[in-house]
Design a protein that fits this description.
Layout lengths: L5 H28 L12 H20 L3 H18 L14 H20 L8 H4 L8
Length: 140
Amino acid sequence: MEHRSQAESALGGAAYGMLFVLGVVMGVVGGFTHPVLLWRAEPVPVSAIGWVLALLGVCLGAGKLMRARLGAFVTALGWLLVTMPFTLKMGGGDLVIAEGAPGYVYLYGGLAAVVAAYLLSPTSRGGSWLLHGYPQKNSM
């Protein structure tokens, strides 16, 4: 078992905390901007597809940089905790993620993206690049 100092533990906790906040920010901004039309007669929800691809990239990048699936999971958790309440109708009938192609692409595509990012992220073995740096390559 690897023993870490208090500074390394605090730095790792801060990194995961910031990944969670990044997921929350992506959920808030994506929730309100996914139905934006880029041009008038747009049959394809381009903005929603863009947000799904961005979510996949950020979650996968977090998993790879932290060298653990926990990085992808924490970022996805922040996104999910914001996105799921956006699908509920308010008392006045207001809805952030509405029915229709952009809403379905953003919601279900985002769910598929976070699952894919989690599965494609490495399992935790070598520790985070943040705490130990990248390993030296042998030049033999």
